[in-house]
Amino acid sequence: MSVINSHSNSGSDNGVLENEVSLIDLRRDLLRFAVLQLRNVENAEDVVQEALAAAVSTFDRFKHNASIKTWVFTILKNKIMDVFRDRWNKNRFDLVEATGDSSDFDILFKENDHWQKSEMPSAWGNPEQSFENKQFWLIFDICMNNMPEATSRVFSMRELLGLEVEEICKELAITTSNCWVILHRARMSLRLCLQQKWFEEER
Amino acid sequence: MISCKVATHLLSEQLDRTLTIKEKWVLKFHLFICTGCTNFKSNINFLRKACKHITHHDN
Fold first, then answer.
1. CA–CA distance, A151 with A15 (Å, rounded to integer)
2. Which residues of A touch B50 (CB under 8 A)?
3. In degrees rounded to 5, what are phi and psi of residue A109?
4. Contact B16 A183 (CB under 8 A)
5. Contact, A127 vs A21, CB < 8 A?
6. What are the pLDDT digits (tens) for B17-57?
7. Residue range A68-115, pLDDT digits in tens
8. Does any CB of chain A come closer than 8 Å to the CB of residue B12?
9. Hey, are the CB atoms on B49 and A165 less than 8 Å from each other?
10. Following CA atoms A69, A154, A149, A87 in sequence, which dihedral angle do they give, to the nearest 10 degrees?
11. pLDDT tens for each residue of A14-50
12. How far does the CA of residue B30 sit from the closest CA of chain A (Å)?
């Protein structure tokens, strides 16, 4: 990884990996993204290493109209998908069952299936402001880890790797309605966790 | 009149598929009178934005 050691010349704008700092930041972001999904630091470090190596070796094919970060992330997303595929092939299980059961969020609702007064979702104001807050992202990671692994895997495929539901169903051999149910559980869980651990605390 | 529980399912599925015209109408009507589900809708739309932010921006 000789690029890591290349020092920036002030005023030079010869690309991406132009200085140590940005590469260190990039690696940190990639690692965080991988750990969030793979839930295993060693596996995450391996895929990030592979993604960076692939980026360096194919650098001449990099289209400069994309940002370097987006480009390396695309490579990393494919590597993460390979790990998911590999894990799934080695260890298949009842995915729907592993993501919980339909009564998991019943406690939020009254008998007539309308919100309990105390559980009614509140307005989060201008939540995008939280993006600038490092503490928010720590909570976000904690909430992702709160979900059963199977739930977070499907949610990651959809929202972090950007797959369509049809692709996820094909990869995991589940029906589309099962996929919707799992994604619903993921959103219920993540929303509730952020509500309790972040947005309520903020007030 | 659909329940809030059913509305949360439709609101989530709206992020993954196109709802039928009938589903859209019952949902629209429900949201018109239900603050909790209107907030739920904004909350889960924010989850998608947060996930996009992780890959597309520096943080």
1. 39
2. 131, 140
3. -115, 155
4. yes
5. no
6. 999 999 999 999 999 999 999 999 999 999 999 999 987 75
7. 888 899 999 999 999 999 999 999 899 888 999 888 899 999 999 999
8. yes
9. no
10. -80
11. 455 555 658 888 899 999 999 999 999 999 999 999 9
12. 11
Q: Cβ contacts (< 8 Å) between B1 and chain A: which residues?
A: none
> Alpha-carbon distance B16 to A184, whole Å?
10
**In terms of DSSP H, where are the helices of chain A?**
2-5, 20-38, 41-57, 68-90, 95-98, 134-146, 149-155, 165-172, 176-194, 200-202
Answer yes or no: do B39 and A123 touch at CB < 8 A. yes
Residue B12 to chain A, least CA–CA distance (Å): 6
Neighbours of B45 (CB within 10 A): 15
What DSSP line would sit under A40-52, residue for residue? -HHHHHHHHHHHH
Q: Nearest-CA neighbor of A154 among A98, A76, A108?
A: A98
Comparing CA positions, the residue from B57, B46, B39, B54 lying closest to residue A190 is B46
Distance in angstroms (rounded) separating the CA atoms of residues A86 and A169? 16
For residues A81 and A29, the answer to whether their CB atoms sit within 8 Å is no
Q: Name the β-bridge partners of A115.
A: A109
Task: State pTM to two decimals.
Answer: 0.88
With an 8 Å Cβ cutoff, are B4 and A115 in contact? yes
Tokens of A67: 């940002």
Measured in angstroms, the CA of B24 and the nearest CA of chain A are apart by: 17
Name chain B contacts of A123, Cβ cutoff 8 Å: 39, 42
Across the interface, of A114, A184, A191, the residue whose CB is closest to B43 is: A191
Site of tokens 């990869």: A171
